[in-house]
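We modelled the chain as a single entity of 125 amino acids. Its sequence is:
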Amino acid sequence: MTDYDRLVDHYVAMWNKADAGNRKRLIAALWSEDCIHTNKRAEWHGHAAMLERVTGSYEKSIRDGGHRFEAMGNTEGYRNVVRLNWHMRPAGGGKIVAQGFELLVLADDGRIKADYQFIDPTPNP
């Protein structure tokens, strides 16, 4: 397992964490203080905004939706850039209900400075 794989494992785990304290600790460990997470709908800047973003996603998709995020196992990294694909499916297994691509740019300390998220069409609507 590479350092990039470990980063992605922790990144995906962060979105699935039920405990708010664990989410907050993972955000501090994974993200630089001046981080940005962005998709075509919105942008989030800094740890406090990331905590709101991850908590909102957890509550909607995991807690209330009964789903789980999973990395697709195709992590690639080069220097300070990491790419990964993910999908979301029911926690007990089943068809993929959402999927996407992340491009992570790392700060000098190895934490995420920027996360560019792209949502892909669902393969089996």
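As a brief sanity check on the tokenised model: The mean pLDDT is 95. Residues 30 and 38 are 16 Å apart (CA to CA).
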